[in-house]
Design a protein that fits this description.
single chain; 121 residues; alpha/beta; two-stranded antiparallel ribbon; 26% helix; CoA-bd; CoA-binding protein; NAD(P)-bd_dom_sf
Length: 121
C-alpha cells in the first residue's frame, strides 16, 4: 500500500490528523506520523518535525498544518520526494502547491478521509 507521511500528526483523538492516521492504518497504508508533539498513534511513534526525519519511498504527504506554518517546512517536505501532497481543508496553499507541481509532485486539494472512503486514495 501507499506509504503516507502525516505532517501535523497528533495523539489528540478530536483532530483530523488523528482520524487520518486511524483510517490510513485501517486501510492498510503504512503511516509515518510527523509532528511537534511526542506520542504514538496506532503503534507508530510520532517523529519530531524539528529533526526533519529522513523517510524513504514516500508516496503521499498529507498536510494537517495551516498555510501560515508551512513555509518553514517547504524544503523538508519536498526533500521527501512524495508523488503527491494532499492539502486537506484549511491547509490549501497556492504558493506551495505551485512549488510542488514545479518539482513534479502532484498537488491535491482534498480530504484524505473522503478520498479513502471513496477509493480515490
Amino acid at each position: 500500500m501507499k506509504k503516507t507521511v502525516i505532517i501535523g500528526a497528533t495523539t489528540d483523538q478530536s483532530r483530523y490528523a488523528y482520524l487520518a492516521a486511524r483510517m490510513l492504518t485501517e486501510y492498510k497504508h503504512e503511516i509515518v506520523p510527523i509532528g511537534i508533539k511526542k506520542g504514538e498513534v496506532f503503534g507508530t511513534q510520532i517523529l519530531d518535525i524539528f529533526q526533519k526525519p529522513k523517510v524513504e519511498n514516500v508516496d503521499t504527504v498529507t498536510l494537517y498544518i495551516g498555510p501560515q506554518r508551512q513555509p518553514e517546512w517547504y524544503d523538508y517536505i519536498l526533500q521527501l520526494k512524495p508523488k503527491r501532497i494532499i492539502f486537506n481543508p484549511g491547509t490549501e496553499n497556492p504558493e506551495f502547491e505551485k512549488m510542488a507541481e514545479q518539482q513534479g509532485v502532484e498537488a491535491v486539494e482534498g480530504c484524505t478521509l473522503v478520498m479513502l472512503r471513496s477509493r480515490q486514495f
